[in-house]
Amino acid sequence: MVDFLWLVIAFPLAGAVVNLIFGRRIGQPASGWLAFGLVAVSWAIAVPPTIGFITGGAQTETIFLFAWIPLVGADAALLWDPLSALMTMIVTGVGALIHLYSIGYMNRDERYPRYFAFLNLFIASMMILVLAANYAMMFIGWELVGLSSYLLISFWFTKPAAAAAGKKAFIVNRIGDWGYLVALMVIFATFGTFDFNTIFSTAPGVLTAGTATAITLLLFVGAAGKSAQLPLYIWLPDAMEGPTPVSALIHAATMVTAGVFMIARSAVLFELAPVSGVVVAVVGAMTALVAALIALSQTDIKKVLAYSTISQLGYMVLGIGVGAYAAGVFHLTTHAFFKALLFLGAGSVIHAMAGEQDMRKMGGLRKKMPITFLTMGVAWLAISGVFPFSGFWSKDEILAETFARGGGYYVLWAVGLFVALLTAFYMTRLFVMTFLGAPRWDDGVHPHESPRTMTIPLIVLGFFTVSAGIVNTPVRLAFKHFLEPSFEGVVHAKSLDLGLLAILGTIALIVAVIGIVWSWRKYSGAELPAEDGRWWERSRAAFGVDEFFGRSLVAPGARASRWVADTMDLKVIDGAAHGIGGGVRRVSEGLAKLQTGQVRSYAGGVAVAGTILIFVFLYVGGAF
Amino acid sequence: MQNMALLPVAFEVILVTGAMLVLLVAVIADKPRKMWAPIAGVAFLASVVAGVFQWRAVAETGGGLFFSTPGLVIVRSPMVVMDGLSAFAAIVLGLVGFVAFVGSWDLVTVLGKRSAEFVALSLLAVAGLHMMTATPNLIVIFIGLETASICFYVLAGFIRGSKQSDESALKYFLLGSLSSAMFLYGIALVFGATGSLTIYGANSIRDFFSLTLITEPGILLAGLALMLAGLFFKVSAAPFHQWAPDVYQGAPSGAVALMAAGVKVAGFAVLARIFVGGFISQIDTWAPVMAVIAALSMVLGTTMALVQTDLKRLLAYSGVAHSGYLLATLVAGIDGVPPMWFYVSTYAFMIIGAFTVVSVVNGPTSSGAPIASFKGLAKRSPAMGWLLAIIMFGMSGMPFFAGFVGKVLAFVVAGEAGYLWLVVIGTLATVIGLAFYLRVVATIFSSEGDEEKLEPSRSSRFVVAICAAITVLFGIVPWPLLDVVREALPL
Amino acid sequence: MTLTITWFLFLAAGLFSIGLAGVLIRRNALVMFMSIELMLNAANLTFVAVSKELGLIEGQVTALFVMVVAATEVTIGLAIIVAVFRTRSSANVDELAELKG
Amino acid sequence: MAEMIVFIIFAAVALIGAISMVAASNPVYSVIGLLATMFAIAVLYLMLDAHFVAAIQVIIYAGAVMTLFLFVIMLIGVDTSDVYGAQTLRQRVMTGIVALTFFASIALAGRTVWITGSDAFGKPNLNGTAEAVAGELFGTWTIVFLSTVMLLTIAAVGTIALAYFPQDGTQDEVPR
After folding, report:
1. How many domains, in total, are found in chain C?
2. Cβ contact (<8 Å) for C101 and A595?
3. Residue in D94, D95, D101 closest to A611 by CB
4. ipTM score of the complex?
5. pTM for this entry
6. Which chain B residue has its CA at the smallest distance from C15's CA?
7. What total of structural domains would you count in chain D?
């Protein structure tokens, strides 16, 4: 059955091609159904081999497809193990639901087939990334994912904000990709191959701590770009300019987890680099904290969810940083369900409110949209960490494993706990402002429940949101065992006894409840409380982090970041120089001045360079 | 052996015959233009066939053959050599010539009667380019180089009465002659230092290095430096690149493709022949210099391409960067030759395709191609827009396109040769380079711009489709070509 | 002081350098071009001198081929210069700077 | 010693001719300077026993090429705008530095030994008569000699393409 696994990639890819070329002829709903069908079939193909892992009957396998660049050990081959099986299930499963949802949501969009082509392309790229058996192929998936995400974010490219957001995502990811690329170079220089099996089996013998640290930190730069970690997260909130199902699929459930997945895949290397582990954990915790603080004050419903995604990604990275890979991946799984649900619910609300995204103009939607209200209610409780919803179990496990490391990790645990409080607070704020209280709608808005193609995915996801936690309770660690073959040779954090776990769990639950109650009391009144004062304002402005890192990180100087953005900007092409900022612009312009158009100066260049060449040769050749 | 008498020079003979026929027909026939296309097309394709036969002959004899006079295998001072490098160069150059010629057919139709000269010069230029690669004799290399270069000077200035075209021709001519003179002086110095003009054979440069221990190789080094300077100029590696953007921009769009692609292929084949084949014992001297030039080309080409507003200039600067990647392969010595071949032969078709699109959009006689004129190309002519986008992706080194495989191979061999810093710079340049390639792609798909439909001619559609197909094909299934280029080594 | 071949070679190097200077400093395309011819002559002198020293006639044959190349270059070069003169009424290369950047 | 004197005289002529070519403001004088250099080089060829090459040097360069130059100068008019003052001092100094540095680099390279060539083959007495050159030219170098057909064709074809303006103007395209 594993032999047909390549179809999981091929089907969505074929769908993308067909929709791209014949989409217009296929017509409006049909092209959407086609795309959905292909992804659903992909999912169905992957189900039986996955069940093999659950029952314990299957083995980790490498499926060789064809030679690509044999010289560097980069073949088209698939690695099928529990980790990739899980990711395949999430990507194709959630992906299929979101396709279904989009059929209704994108209804009457002018470029309907194009949208589904991109969506299919994204699924195919993601599957290449997930199933890759070597770093080179993974990189290809990585790049394709970036490309399709860029296409989808700026899908409504006539909206300037969408075009700009696409650009920003592209640029920031480019920084991450650079880290990844250099990591690939170092890996190849060290191991002479890109193949996972070879690398992971030989790594403990070959790798020195220094090289391992270098590789893993560079990989983490890549992961931070894709998984929106501090400071590279700044693209994600802007990416909400894309259609809402895209936000749900890409920027909540799947693509942003690619970084987490990549670190989990490279767990063997991270185990050899304890320093990197600390860095990863600290960055994760800080990301969770900063993003949660920003999420507190946002009024745009999608922005709240975006920052909450970043915050939850921070949790995952924290988990992986402390060596709790299974816990990190577990949170990834549950988060995929409830965050996709939240986004789709938000999309349903926005759909109902005729495009209104400001929560201050919502309220009282409970009666009008009962299904959306119920399903989102479930997701709200899950993300807030309320027992026994899925979010409680996965978040708790990460916190517990962090606690178990002891020492300085107590601080990280405390941070995580505080973030849990904040999460409960801002999610309750979102929920209450949207669904409860008195309606604050604009005139002429008539909310209504969404069509069935949109509500069915909500219900399905709602079911998993409630139940997914059961697979990995401290009492019964089925999920962890399931993943064990993927983390062979990785030292697990020492297991905690149930009593301590119960205490930690109770603390987390109490904190969550405090957050919920506090927030409920604050926002459920007839009037919205005024959110002013320095803290709120700073938070609303994202603490200027975006601006700060935009200025200091993308390149030395904010103009450089804008420069890359603007080189992509069509408006600037006419006067190209206008868009190019920062040092590079000056360098390029200085160089362009050398390009005077004067023959004699060119001849001078040739003569001088030739003379220098002679001297260099004489020097290098030892004739001095 | 008897039937192989003319084989080593068959490529040149076929093309020169074709050129003569074209000129003859131009004088004699009534409506000659109809006959040039078949003559030149057949000549190019026949030259490719000759290349294939050469390839097979080399494979059969299991090595190279030297020739001085047809039919006579002469070991002392051979003038013609037939080996994997020259045979593969014949195949690639023949195809490049054919594709570029078909792509320039729009220009030929516009030129009127005078186009006979254009066709003949195209044929002779390709013959000269191959002559460079199929000889171990430095002077014959020089003659071949000049044959091709002089043709290109004329082609650059072919549009009479156009100031840009004239300017481009004069710049190319003055600077090209200067660099040729430097190249020639380099040969003279090498001749002085080693007493030999030929790489193989008796009393050859290779013999000299194996028999003589030179303690004070000052003149030899100076000669090498000047030869390198001349060749760097021809392949437009920084800092010898300044002519390229001006010349490409000014020259008629229909004629640039051959200039850009042919010179790169032949130039790098010659670099491999001379430096990897002849001066391999001096590799410790020239490889570091080449690496520095490679890095300089990548960085300069990329940064300059970022600010261009003209697609032809942009392509010229990106060509500088590509020269950098190509030079990065050669620093690895003989291991670098197969990657070099893979890279340059795929790149040649990408650049032909790109310039053919330019010729379609801005007209075959145009000088300059503002990027703004490509706005909404995908709407005006979906075929051209998409294919140009594919070619841009190919050049930028996106995975699944030929440029990616070429770059990976280049970085691998350079890394294995110990130039890790070069690899880091190269990847950085590649990543930055994406920006300007994607800018072009974004322009193609922008919604603004002319609404007027473009009706590309059948010939240009064919050429661009072929080039894009090669870009994709060798990006996805590179190994057949990789297997072939493994044999395309200098002796 | 006896006349060794080195004298000739230094003379050739000197002539080449003067030619280089001419290319760099003159604005008249014709004179630039003459300077390039001078450089080719200097290379030729080197070939002939070396051929004398080593007793290899290749050097002299080479000189002949270089002359053929140079002659071709001259015809084409002068044709280009004439063509430029027709459109611009000047052979001053400093006025040729439309293409730049 | 006599050889030395001859060499010095003609080397001086060559150098002076070359310098005057570069320095003369009037291109006609430049041609004359170059002509002197060409003749001097021909004499040096004779000293190097390259009789045939010397003859060709006089015929082709002095006879044909320089006449062609002169002809074109007359055709396009003597342009005397290119006088000394036209170049800035900076340009002149820079040019001088570049040329001197280039010379210095070659001199540095060859300061000890120019010719390390193959003494193994001895030093046969070389006599570059027409016969000797022809023997080589039509022996080993036949194929190269034949290949010059390309160059000559290009010369003819290229000149027509660039500079032949038909009277009726029908063949000329309108540049876009």
Report:
1. 1
2. yes
3. D101
4. 0.92
5. 0.70
6. B185
7. 1
